Protein 1
Amino acid sequence: MKNSGILIVVSGFSGAGKGTLMKRLLEKYDTYSLSISMTTREPRLGETDGKEYFFVTKEQFEQKITENGLVEHAVYCDNYYGTPRNYVEEQLIKGKDVILEIEIQGALKVKEMFPDALLLFVMPPSIEELRRRLNGRGTETEEVIEKRLQRATEEAEDIEAYEYIVINDDLEVCVDEMHQMILASHNVPARNMKFIENMRNDLKDLSKGE
Ligand code: ADP
Ligand code: 5GP
C-alpha cells in the first residue's frame, strides 16, 4: 500500500530553530513539500520574496483573504501570516507530505479543518539557549525579541494540542528524529482507515466463503 501524503504542521517558539530545521529536513529527504507562507512583515536581511515568504502589503493580504485564497491566517506580533491554499491542495493530491511552518493559532485552525494533520512543536533545549539563538540571529531589535518571548509564554500553554514535541538541541539528530516521527505517523490506524476497512471487508468475504 502506498501511503498518501499527510499535512504536517510545525510550530514552536520564535528562535527555536524551525526555519533551520525545515531547510535541513528538505535538503536531507526529498519526500517533503514545504508551503511558502504569505506575510506582511518586512523581509530580514538575506530573505527573498518567494523563497522564505511571499512578502506583501496589508492590502494585498486582505485581498487574498477575501478571495478565500488562504487555508488559514493569523496575526503574530503585529503582522499577518497565512498559508496559500493552491500549493497545499496540489501537493496533497500528488501524494506528497506537505509541511506548514506556522504559529499556534493557525495550527489549531488547521487541526480543526484537517483532523488527520500531524502537529509537531519544536522546542529549544532551554530558555537560556532560546535567548542566545534569538540574540545570535541578530535580525530583530531587543524590543521585538521581548515581544516574541512574551508570545512564547502564551504559546507554551497550548503545547498539549500537538502530537509530538521535537527538541532542537543537536540539529542533525533533531532532523532525523523529526523524519522518524513523520514516518511513524503515517502508520497510525486513524490515517489508514481506507486500507483497514478494505481488509476488514476482504476478511468478511473470506469467512463467507466468497
Ligand atoms: P525560528 O525559525 O524558529 O524562529 P531559526 O531557524 O531562525 O528559528 O533559528 C534561530 C537561530 O538559532 C538561528 O541563528 C539559527 O542558526 C540558530 N539555530 C537553529 N538551530 C540550532 C541548533 N540546533 N543549534 C544551535 N543553533 C541553532
Ligand atoms: P517569523 O516572522 O519569525 O518568520 O515568523 C513568525 C511566526 O509566524 C512563526 O511562529 C511562524 O511559524 C509563523 N508563521 C509563518 N508563516 C505562517 C502562516 O502562514 N500562518 C501562520 N498562522 N503562522 C505563520
Protein 2
Amino acid sequence: MNNSLKRVSALVMGFGIGLGAATNAWSQSSLEEVMKDRGLTQKDLLAAAKTYTPTGGRDEYLAFSSGGQSGQVIVYGIPSMRILKYIGVFTPEPWQGYGFDDESKAVLAQGRIHGKDINFGDTHHPAFSETKGEYNGRYLFINDKANPRLAVIDLHDFETKQIVVNPFMKSEHGGAFVTPNTEYVMEAAQYAAPFEDEFVPLEEFNEKYRGAVTYWKFDDKKGRLDPEMSFTFELPPYSQDLSDAGKGPSMGWGFTNSFCSERYVGGIERGRPPFEAGCSQKDTDFLHVTNWKKAAELVAAGKVKKSKGSYMIPMDQAVKEGLLYLIPEPKSPHGVDVSPDGTHIIVSGKLDSHAWVYSWDKIQKAIKNKKFEGKDPYGIPIIAMKDALHTQVQVGLGPLHTQYDAKKCVVYTSIYVDSMVTKWDYCEGKVLDQLHIHYNIGHLVAMEGDSVSPDGKYLVSLNKLAIDRFNPVGPLHPQNHQLIDISGDKMQLLYDMPLPLGEPHYVVAIKADKLKPAVRYKSGWNSRTDSKSPYKTRAGREKVVRGEDGVVHVYGTVIRSHITPEIIEVEEGETVSIHLTNLERAEDETHGFALYSQNVNLSIEPGKTVSATFKAERAGVFPYYCTEFCSALHLEMQGYLLVKPKGYVAKAGKIQEGTKYTQADYDKQVKTNVDTQAVINSVVGFITSHNYKDFPEVVALVEDATDQLGFAEEAKKKSETFASKGDYQNATLWAGQWWQYQVKTADLGLRAKTFLEEHGAKKVK
Ligand code: CUK
Ligand code: CUA
C-alpha cells in the first residue's frame, strides 16, 4: 500500500487499534480470582449474569422515568439499567439544542403561564399511549406538578412536541393517566385554589377554592392534545391526588383520590395547627369516581358550557347527570391502581398499614341501585365503604403504590415507612413475600405494569433515599433505582442504579421491540411541528437574504466537515436568523452549532432544519463551530459571523493567504487524489457486487457517499480550471477540498462495506 492509501485507510478506518492487548489482560485472571479480589458471592454472580449486557447487546425493556425537578424524562434499559437518553421536556437541554433553537423554543413557549417563561417542571407520572389497553409505543405523556401542565413526547424521535397549561388549576398531581384507547389523558389537581386568576381570601376556601380533574382529549391523528375538546370536572377542595383510568368493565370511568377531605387550611405562623395536623384528622378521605364517557357525550351534545375557553362541568351538573360519586378510602391515601382486567381498584393510605381493594362490580351495583350512605357538603353522593370494598390487607407501614404482575391476582405494593416491597394476593387477601429495599421506596414499576397484560419479570423500586448505597458525593445524594427479579416466588434484588437528575417519581416500562424510532429526519424537517421547514436548504442553495421582516435570514447547511456559509456579514443592530439543515443521511452524523456570546447552541441531527434568531447588538467578531466530533476534520468545521459597525466602509484588498502553493504542491495533491479514487472504486466495487439494497442502513450510507462524490467532482473541476489558468494557489486548495470529499466518500463506503460484511450480505452477479 502506498503512503497516500495508508493515510486514507488510517483516516477512514477510525481509531480502533490495540483492542487485542486488552483481551489478553482479561484472560489472565480466572472467575474465582476476580470473585476473591472483589469479594463477590455466588449470589452476586447470578445477579450480575441477569443484568450484565455485553457490548453491543440490547435491553428487553425500555424504562421512561420522570426526571423530577429536572423537568426531563430519563430513558434507561432493563435489565442493564444503562441510561440511554434524557429527553428535554419542561426544561432547556443544551445538548439537544432544546430551548435554544427557535423550533423548540416555540414548544417551551406553549408552557408559559401569564406570559412568564417557566424553565423547570416537577415531573411525576409518565404514561404511554394505549390501544385497547396495551402500550402502543407511539407517545409518552408526562405532567408537571408545580405548574399544572402536560407534555406530549413523540416516540418516533423521542422529542417533546407539545405542552399544554391547565386553564383552571394552580397545581396538579394526578396526571398523566391514559384511558385505554388514549381517548383522554387524565390530570387531577392537587392543592385547591380558585379557578379564577385573581385573589380570593382563604376565608372563602370552602366556597371558592376548588379541586378538579381534567380529561385532555388526545387527537391521535395529529399526535397532539386538543384543548378545545377537553373537559374538566369541578371537584370539592379535597386535595385530589393520584388518578387511574378504568378498563374492561370499568372502561369509561376514572378514579381520583384525595388526602385532605377535612378541607383544612393551616397557618402555623398565625398560631393555627399546621396543614399536616388538620389534613390527617379523619379516618377516611374520598375516592372520586368520574364517568368520562358520559361526560364526553354531554360535551358532544352541546350540554356543557365553556369557561376560560375550555369545557367545565360544575359539580351540580355532574351530580344531576350521574357523573360523579365519592367512596371513603383509607386515611391520607396516595396511589390508586386499577387491575389489568378492570375489576378491582387498589388504594393505599400512607397512614394506614392496609391496602384497600375495591370491587368495581359492587361500586357499579351501588350506583345502579342509587344506594348511597349520604352526600358530602357539595351534594355529591357517597357510596358506603362496605358497599364498595372487596377486602383489606395488612401490607406494612406506609403503603403507597401498587403494581400488577403477569400472574393473576398477584401485586406488589411499595411500603414507604418500612422500606420494603410487599408481594400479595388481592383476590385471596394474603401476603406472599416481602423484600427490603434501600431506602424508603416511593413508586415501583413492573414491566408493562399499567397495561391490560402486564409482563411481570422485573420490578424497579424508586427509592427516596440512597444514604449509604454509593460513594459519597456531598449532601445531595443520587436517587436509587433498584432492580428486582420477580420471575420466581421470592423477589430477588439484582442491582442498584444511581440516578443523579432530579427526584424521579414514577417510571413506565415498555417492551423495547414495540418502539420503532427513526434514525434520520426527512430532509429539511422541523421536528417540533413535524412538517417540512420553510427554511429547508439544499446543497448548493445556501444564501443570505435580507427579508421584508427586516431580518437577515441565513439559509445554511452542515455536512462533514463544513458549515455553509463559513463567513456571515451583518451590520450592528440587525436581527439575524440562522437556519441550518443537516444534509447527512448517515446514521448518527449529528452536527452541532455554537456561536460566541449569543447563547446560540444547536443540535442538528441528520435531515433536521433548525433556526436561531438573535439580535447582533454590538459590532465584533463572533466565531462559530460544530460542537459534535463528527469527522477527522471536525475542528475545521468553523466560521465567522462578522458584525460590522454601522456605516463601515471596507478597506481595499483581499484576504491575505497564509501559505503560498506552487505547481509541485498541486501535482502532489492530485496524485494523492488519484490513488484515493482507486480505494473508493474498490469499495464501490465491493458494495455494488453485493445485495446492499436489502439493507436500508447501507442504502442511506451509499446515498450520502454519492452526494460526497458529486461534491468531489465539482471541486475537481474547479481545481482543474484554476490549474489550466496557472493559478496554482486556488488549484491546490480546491484539489485539497476534492480530496476532503473523497475521504468522506471513502469513510462512508467503508462503513457500508463493514456493515455488509457483519450482516452477512450476499454476492450478486
Ligand atoms: S407520587 Cu412521588 S412517590 Cu407524585 Cu406518584 Cu408517590
Ligand atoms: Cu460537524 Cu463537527
Protein 3
Amino acid sequence: MLVFAAETSCDETSVCIMAKNKKIYSHIIYSQEVHEQFGGVVPELASRAHLEILQSITKKAFKEASLEIKDIDIFTATCGPGLIGGLLVGSTFTKSLALGSKKPFVPVNHLEGHILSTSYNNNISFPHLVLLITGGHTQIYLLKNFQEIILLGETIDDALGEAFDKVSKLLGLPYPGGKELEAKSEEGNENFYELPRPMLGKDNYNFSFSGIKTAVNLIIKKNKIDKYFIHNMSASFQKCVTDILLQKLKNVILNLQNKNINISSFSLVGGVANNKYIKSNLSRLKHSHNVDILIPEKQMISDNAAMIAWACIKNFKNKNPDLNFKPNPRLKIHD
Ligand code: ZN
C-alpha cells in the first residue's frame, strides 16, 4: 500500500510518498521564506505560495521515487487545524489527484500527525503522554492507545512557539525568532531575570504565556538593549518556559500515579521540540520520575507531510475516506 500525503496548514509546503511498511520513497519540505520580511506568517501569501509550489514539489517527489500517480493507493492531506487558505489548497489539490486516479482520499488532522510522529521511530507503551509544542498549539495529551487521545490541558492564550517569536521580536531578533533566541541564550545567564511562571497549580494542566511576554516587555522598557541584555533575557525566558513545561509534566505524571495510572514514557513533539535546551531539560524526567522522553525523527519534528502519511497509515482502520470532507481551521482531534 502506497500513500501520498500533502501538508499545507501553515508556512511549510510538504509532500511525502510512504509505504505501509514505513518506507519513505520521497519526502520534500519547502519552507516558505516570503514571510521573513513581515516578521510572521501572512496567511494570504502562504496560500499563494502553497499554490505555486505544491505542483512542482509533487512532480519532483514522484520523480525521486520513480513512481507514478497511478501507483498510489491512498491520497491524504491535512484538513485542519491551520490556516484555511493553505488547507483548501492542499486538500483540493490532493482530492483532485485521488479523483483523477479513482482512489480514496483520507482527511488527516494535523495535530494527530504530530501526536503520532514518535510512533514512527519508537515502540509506544500505553498509557502514554504527549507534549505538543508548536507555533500554533501547546497541549498535553494522554493516549490510552492510538485511537483514544485525551486532551488534558492547553494554552489559554499564546502558543509556546508564538511566545518565542514575540519575545525575540521584542529583542529585535530576526524572524523566525525561536532559533535565534535559543542561540543567543547560550551566552546568557538564565538566572539573570526572574520572570513570572503562571498557572503552576497542581491540578491545572493549562498554560499561559502572554503574561511572560508582557513582563519581558516591561523589563525591556527599563533597560538598555545591548547584546548582554539580549543574551541574559533570552536565557532567562527560555529557562522560565522550560521550568513551566517540566513542572506541568511532573504534575500530570504524579496526579496520574495517584490514580494508579503509571506513565513510563512521554513524547515531545512539534516544531519547538527542536529546541535543544527544552529537550535536554525535559529528559531529566528519566532520572527524577523514571519517564523516558521520545522524540520524532528529525524530518518529522517541524511541519511535514511524512507525519501526515504516517498518521493515515497508523490509524487507517479508524479513518473514513471522504472526498467531500471540508477543511476546518479549528478541527479538533476527535472531529
Ligand atoms: Zn504543526
Protein 4
Amino acid sequence: MLTERPGVFSGHPKEECGVFGVFGHPEAATLTHYALLTLQHRGQESAGIAVAGEREILHHKGMGLVGEVFGERVLKELSGRAAIGHVRYSTTGSSLAVNAQPLVFRHRLGALALGHNGNLVNAHLLRNRLEAEGSIFQTSLDTEVLAHLVARSKEPTLEKALTEALQQIQGGYAFVLLTERSLLGLRDPYGIRPLALGRLKGAYLLASESCAFDSLGGRFIREIEPGEMVVIDGAGIRSFQALPVAGRALCLFEFIYFARPDSLLNGLSVHSVRKELGRILAQEAPAAADLVIGVPDSSLSAAAGYAEELDLPYEIGLVKNRYVGRTFIQPNEKLRNLAVRLKLNALRKVVEGQRVVLVDDSIVRGTTSRHIIRLLRQAGAKKIHLRISSAPYRFPCYYGIDTSVISELIASQKSVEDIRAEVGADSLAYPSLEGMLRAAGGRERGYCLSCFTGTYHVPVPDGAGKLVLEEK
Ligand code: 5GP
Ligand code: MG
C-alpha cells in the first residue's frame, strides 16, 4: 500500500531529472559538469557524474546542487574520455544520498553506470519478484530494477541484455548508460521523456535537453526516437529499435514547465511553443487589463505571447530571487509565507492601481497562485486576471513527475470558479486542450496528456507511486 509520508510530498510536483552523456572527449567529466549546470532546472536534489577511466568506471555523486557536489579537485580525479551525468529530483524513492545517480555496478559483462529520467510504473512488481528470487537492493530507485534485470540476463552482449530487460519494464524513461568502452542512450517506446543527440567536434553527446549542447558549443543533431537505442563506441555510432515504437507521446508538460525555453523538443522551440500557448490563451480568454505580467521564469514566454496577441504592455511585475534553493523547508505557515516573500517580490511601481493579467504556467495545488495574488494585492494591483497557460492539471503523472496523489491536485477537486475564489483572483481561465495542442504543433505530433485527461498510455499497475519501493 502506498501511504503518504509527511514532508515527502512537499506540495509542488517535483521536476523530474536531467541526464547527459559524452563519448570521445578528453575532458569528459568537465563537459558533463557544464552540461549538468545547464540542466540544473530539471533537478536540484542530487547530482552525479560517472566516467569511463582507464581500467574502471569512476564516479562521484552527492546531495545538493551541481555546484555544491562538484569542485575542481573532484573533477580532476574523474579523468576519462566518456562520461554520463545526472541531476535528480525524486520521482521514485525519497530524497536520500543512496538514491543519487548515476548508479554504478559491476556485473558479468563488466562495469555499468546508469542514469535515468522518468519513472518505471511496474518497478515494484519486478522488485518483489527479484527479491523473492534472492536479489538484494541497495536503493529505493526504480532504476536499480533495470540494473538487476541486465545483470541476470543470459544474453551475450550488453545491448542484447539491455533489450531483454527493457521488454520487462514499463513506464516513461530516458536512460544514459556508460560502460568502460561505450555510451548508450535509450528512450521508452512512447518517447514520453525526452532525449537528444548532439555533437561537439569529434565527440558525441546525449542530453535530456538540447540547451546542454549549446552551452558546450556543440550542436544538436536529432532526438532519439521512441524505443530507439543508440550505442556509441570507438567505432562510431549505431542505432537500432530496441523496442518497437508504441506511439508518440512526449510529455506535454515538458513544453509547459520543465524544459528551458532555449531547448528544442519534438522539433519545436520551447520558447515559441510557450509564446503560442500565451497567444491562444489570449484568443480564448482575453481580459480587460492595463498590462500583462508572468511568474518568473517558466511563464515569461507565455506572458509575452498573451500580451502580444492583445496588444497590451508586457511588464515585469514580479522579481524572483534566483539564489533561494527550491528545497527550502518550511515548518510552519508563518515561515512558509516568509519563504515565498524571499523568493518573489511584487514590483509596486508597475502594478499599483493597475488591472493586471497574471500569467502562470500551471496550477497544481494552488498555493503558489494564492501567495502571488496576495503579494500583488498588497502592492496595490486593482484587478488580477489569472491566466494559466496549460489546461487544468487534474490527474497524477506516473511517468516521471511527482504528482501521484490526486487529492492534492486542486483541479481534480474543484471547479474553475471555486479555484478562482480560493486563489483570490478576479477572473481565472485556462486554455482548451485543443488550443494547447495547437500551440505544440498539433495533436498529430504525439503528446502524453495523462495529467490533463486521465488517459494513460502505459497502463499503471496498482500500487505504483513514489514511495512504493520503500513500503515494506
Ligand atoms: P502550486 O502552488 O499550484 O502547487 O504549483 C504551481 C506552480 O508550480 C507554478 O508556478 C508552476 O510554475 C510550478 N510548477 C509546476 N510544475 C512543477 C514541478 O514539477 N516542480 C516545481 N518545483 N514547480 C512546478
Ligand atoms: Mg512557477
